[in-house]
Amino acid sequence: MGRLRYLDNADLGPDHQDIPRMKSNITRAVAHSPDLARLVAGRGMYFRHKSKLEPRLRELAILQVGWSTRSAYEWAHHVDVALSFGVSEADIHAIGQVARGEATHLDPLALAVLEAARSLTEDIALAQGVFDALAAALSADQLVDLLVAIGEYNGLVRVMAAIEIDLEPEYEAFLARFPLPDAA
């Protein structure tokens, strides 16, 4: 059980019944601050449904954050999301291959996205060459969406760790199918 009770809609007042994604444990925990929960869930919905950034690139970046931080919750949830947006199993497996220094099928832009997410997660820095590669391939709004998504999901994995968010049982199969590396 997480450090905070998971709330349901019945626990919230009438003016907070519209919080998106109240079935996920992270939203149910953050709902202790309902206005914030609405904003956090809304940003996730923006990235999924309104951003002009290609969904495959967005999900590769978020998966890299989950991989780098060993966040089982983030990883499992976004493996599901990635697959639903058409990201291939080979793309998901490539994240581990890149981490091990192995060759992959990924194109240079996908590799730059992974490098940016890994660098911003692990080093909190972005090399000029990586930024330049992204800026050359993406429009300014896509680049901003990518960088903010990486930052957003880095923040969320840290909140999940602090609250000790439990992975919902229906997502455990994604961890078995696409295992995270052991913690370093």
Can you describe what's shown?
With 184 residues, the chain is mainly alpha-helical. Helix content is 63%, strand content 0%. The protein contains nine helices and no strands. The chain has helices at residues 25-30, 34-49, 55-69, 72-84, 89-99, 108-122, 128-137, 140-163, 172-177. Helix 6 (108-122) packs across helix 7 (128-137). The longest helix has 24 residues, at 140-163.
Question: What gap, in angstroms, lies between the N and C termini?
Answer: 24 Å
H/E series: HHHHHHHHH
The SS-based structural class is: mainly alpha
Helix content, binned percent? 55-70%
Unreliable segments of 5+ consecutive residues: none
Strand content: under 5%
Would you tell me the overall average pLDDT? 96
- SS summary, helix count: 9
Question: Measured on Cα atoms, how large is the radius of gyration?
Answer: 17 Å
What is the 3D form?
Answer: globular
Largest sheet: none
Strand tally:
0
What's the SSE blueprint?
Elements: H1 25-30, H2 34-49, H3 55-69, H4 72-84, H5 89-99, H6 108-122, H7 128-137, H8 140-163, H9 172-177
Helix pairs in contact: 3-4, 3-5, 3-6, 3-8, 6-7, 6-8
Features:
single chain; 184 residues; mainly alpha; globular
In brief, what are we looking at here?
This protein has helices at 25-30, 34-49, 55-69, 72-84, 89-99, 108-122, 128-137, 140-163, 172-177.
